[in-house]
Amino acid sequence: MAERIIKSSKIRIGDISIAYHIKKATENPNKTIIFLHGFPFNKNMWKEQLESLEDDITGIAVDIRGHGNSTKGHGFFSIDVFAKDLGIFMRKMEIEQAVICGISMGGYIALRAFQLFSDRISGLILCDTHSKADDNQGKQKRFDGIQAVLQHGRRPYAIGFVGNVFAPKTLNQNPEAVELIKSSIRRNSITSICATLLALASRTDCSETLGDIHVPTLIIRGKEDKITPAALMEEMAAAIPQSKYMEFEDCGHLPNLENPKLFNLQMNKFLVGI
User: Fold this and answer.
1) Can you list the positions of beta strands (E) in 56-112?
2) What are phi and psi of 36, to 5 degrees?
3) How far apart are CA 123 and CA 152, in angstroms?
4) Widest Cα–Cα separation across the chain
5) Lowest CB count within 10 Å: 2, 87, 141, 224, which one?
6) Distance between CA 180 and CA 22 in Å, rounded?
């Protein structure tokens, strides 16, 4: 069995250069999964998932525009722009169909992508995300976040953010995951963080088209997620015809980092069935 190495590369699409990790299938490649990170992280949060994939599956983790090593281009971010970037990326990479796995903001992008090019999506994994737009209170939180980053910089923002996204068990017992997220936030420019907060505040509601999602969909939530309410995820699961919903104990907003073993098991089981 040939050893499969995760390679890092870049590809030019439109006005930006997209950075990605890729682990190519070695045996009868018949499936591709594309991982979309949350805000304000990068592709490195999916390393353990890429490593765990079966030999017949190609895995790609991308840096979304303005995050990680992807350039920001025109700088006017929206979930719509991120989803269209994904469509162009797939065309450039000659990926006819893929399973899209998105966490948090990555899930918003995946849902919008399904509205735009459903024929090129063979399955969805939606983690700690939902289909609703921000209400006024949610928008205000984003605007307050922008003010905080502009006034105090990335470091205090990163510390506060980490306290919010992880379950207490992770904060106490998984310093690697905590450091990965802190450094991801610090590596993003203040401009990109603020532009993405505006993109999140202005995103459209995808709830009305959930019933049109005709592909197998795995929905995962960390039971101790303080950011995404269970009710919104359960509502989304009820509206998507072929969906399976599960909660992971002792996990917050990032279950793929907090319990990678369980996440990888469920992800691979799901991929086999597609």
Assistant:
1) 57-62, 98-103
2) -115, 120
3) 41
4) 54
5) 2
6) 19
**Residues 194, 105: Cα–Cα separation, whole Å:** 14
Indicate the DSSP class of residue 97: -
For the chain, 274 residues long, give each residue's pLDDT as a single digit of tens. 445 789 999 999 999 999 999 999 987 778 999 999 999 999 999 999 999 999 999 999 999 999 999 999 999 999 999 999 999 999 999 999 999 999 999 999 999 999 999 999 999 999 999 999 999 999 999 999 999 999 999 988 888 899 999 999 999 999 999 999 999 998 999 999 999 999 999 999 999 999 999 999 999 999 999 999 999 999 999 999 999 999 999 999 999 999 999 999 999 999 999 9
For the chain, the C-alpha Rg in angstroms (whole number) is: 17
> Three-class SS of residue 198?
helix
Give CA–CA dist 77/35, Å, rounded.
19
Q: How many whole angstroms separate alpha carbon 122 and alpha carbon 130? A: 19
Helices 154-165 and 136-152 cross at an angle (nearest 10°) of 140
Angle (deg, nearest 10), helices 136-152 and 190-201: 170
At residue 260, the 3 state secondary structure works out as helix
Other beta carbons within 10 Å of 112: 23
- Amino acid at the residue 81: V
DSSP letters for 208-245: GGGGG--S-EEEEEETT-SSS-HHHHHHHHHHSTTEEE
The encoded tokens of residue 38 equal 């949350």
- Residue 174 to residue 187: CA distance in whole angstroms: 21
Give the three-class secondary structure for 104. Answer: coil
How, if at all, do strands 121-127 and 98-103 pair? Answer: parallel
